[in-house]
């Protein structure tokens, strides 16, 4: 880990991620509370914020990944943060003018920009972070996300309550500007000649062809789809698990989310420390099996302590899996294709989650809560034999005790 913190690229990217995470949660809470106040607690208006956040991922992630493989990643990351700052400044001007409806655009613009800048971070890691340190680097960035899952809503709420929406947006401008300026210190990046050598569409097709030719990538993407489908089936039903099975108030759901966030933080930290010593195939297969078991246990449990413990362990397992898989993908994918692989695998999982989410309510009404959870567990369990078919290099399979 000491070598990692001496790596200039990692420190700069992680510091920029920290500023971006603060900005994201200030934005999320400020816009949420502002919309609630302006619409008189209109649930449709509030739900639209989620739509404006996730819809661009499907539209722009594949294109963004392709362009990340074409463009200079340093320039892309700096431009992304700069555009975020400019867009927030425009939104602030509309808020000052009283045109509150325009704030929906802030979420959409931020989501669109992230689809271009996030894959570029992976490209920079691939080029400048030694391969044996990539699990630790991925673990630290994952831990940052988990940490802000816990403290982000509190931080955003405090800032909004203390300063209001205008000052919150002004703080956003400063954070994204500082992040852009910080990334100016990243090393100059020179692209190799483009493999597809033509249009964006040709390079997108080249990326898909590359994925089809990589057995591990196809298996991992299929696993992502199954995990997403299973998670989507149960995600909207968590509140019913708390109220019907545990007989708690719906407001108590926040504590279970907090436990999952703490688990993610610990799991990410563990992966950062132990990731390079892990057998990726067995870790992924065991992690998927544990997730399936935990979903079944949560559904059958009528004890708050057991359900809470499982929720914590699920968060830790999910973070560990994400770090191991993320580091494995960066290691196995050629540098020229990292953006396109990331831009394809992520929307596949999210599309499966949305399908599961859309079906969950109908399924619960048809067969009740517990059977729906058990179906989700069975779907997740299908990913275990797929994970066992993964084949990594001998170095990845047996690299134990190589850390320092």
Give a quick set of tags describing it.
Growth Hormone, Chain: A, 404 residues, 82% helix, 2 domains, single chain, disordered C terminus, mainly alpha
Give the CATH topology of the largest domain.
Answer: Growth Hormone, Chain: A
**Amino- and carboxy-terminal Cα gap:** 7 Å
Count of DSSP-assigned helices: 16
Shape: globular
Give the name of the CATH architecture of the largest domain. Answer: Up-down Bundle
What is the average of the pLDDT values? Answer: 77
Which CATH class of the largest domain?
Mainly Alpha
Main β-sheet, in a few words? none
Share in helix:
over 70%
Protein architecture, described:
It is a single chain. The protein starts with a helix and ends in a 6-residue tail after the last helix. 82% of the residues lie in helices and 0% in strands. The longest helix has 49 residues, at 134-182. It folds into two domains: 2-132 and 148-184, Growth Hormone, Chain: A, CATH 1.20.1250; 200-398, MFS general substrate transporter like domains (Growth Hormone, Chain: A, Up-down Bundle). It is built from 16 helices and no strands. With 404 residues, the protein is mainly alpha-helical.
List the helices and strands and how they pair.
Layout: H1 2-5, H2 8-39, H3 43-70, H4 73-97, H5 103-128, H6 134-182, H7 200-212, H8 215-234, H9 238-245, H10 253-274, H11 280-300, H12 304-332, H13 338-367, H14 369-381, H15 383-388, H16 394-398
Helix pairs in contact: 2-3, 2-5, 2-6, 3-5, 3-7, 3-13, 4-5, 4-6, 5-13, 6-10, 6-12, 8-13, 8-14, 10-12, 11-12, 11-14, 13-14
């Amino acid at each position: 880990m000491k070598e990692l913190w001496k790596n200039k690229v990692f420190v700069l990217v992680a510091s920029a991620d920290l500023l971006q995470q603060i900005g994201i949660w200030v934005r999320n809470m400020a816009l949420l509370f502002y919309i609630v106040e302006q619409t008189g607690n209109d649930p449709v208006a509030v739900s639209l914020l989620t739509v404006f956040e996730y819809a661009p991922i499907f539209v722009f992630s594949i294109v963004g990944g392709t362009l990340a493989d074409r463009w200079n990643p340093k320039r892309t990351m700096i431009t992304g943060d700069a555009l975020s700052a400019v867009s927030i400044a425009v939104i602030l001007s509309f808020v000052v003018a009283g045109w509150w409806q325009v704030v929906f655009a802030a979420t959409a613009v931020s989501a669109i920009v992230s689809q271009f800048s996030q894959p570029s971070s992976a490209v920079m890691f691939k080029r400048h972070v030694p391969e044996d340190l990539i699990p630790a680097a991925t673990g630290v960035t994952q831990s940052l996300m988990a940490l802000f899952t816990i403290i982000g809503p509190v931080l955003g709420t405090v800032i909004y309550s203390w300063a209001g929406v205008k000052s919150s947006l002004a703080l956003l401008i400063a954070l994204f500007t500082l992040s852009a300026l910080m990334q100016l210190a990243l090393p100059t990046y020179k692209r190799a000649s483009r493999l597809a050598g033509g249009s964006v569409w040709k390079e997108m097709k080249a990326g898909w062809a590359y994925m089809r030719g990589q057995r591990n990538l196809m298996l991992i993407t299929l696993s992502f789809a199954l995990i997403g489908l299973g998670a989507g089936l149960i995600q909207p039903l968590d509140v019913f698990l708390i109220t019907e099975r545990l007989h708690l108030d719906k407001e108590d759901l926040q504590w279970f989310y907090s436990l999952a966030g703490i688990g993610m933080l610990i799991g990410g930290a563990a992966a950062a420390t132990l990731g390079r010593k892990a057998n990726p195939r067995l870790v992924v297969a065991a992690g998927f099996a544990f997730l399936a078991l935990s979903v079944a246990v949560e559904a059958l449990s009528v004890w708050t302590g057991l359900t809470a413990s499982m929720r914590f362990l699920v968060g830790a397992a999910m973070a560990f899996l994400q770090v191991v898989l993320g580091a494995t993908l960066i290691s196995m994918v050629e540098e020229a294709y990292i953006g396109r692989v990331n831009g394809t695998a992520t929307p596949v999982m999210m599309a499966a989650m949305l399908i599961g989410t859309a079906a969950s309510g109908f399924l619960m009404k048809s067969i009740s809560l517990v059977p729906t959870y058990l179906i989700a567990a069975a779907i997740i369990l299908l990913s275990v034999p797929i994970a066992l078919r993964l084949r990594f290099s001998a170095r990845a399979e047996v690299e134990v005790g190589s850390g320092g």
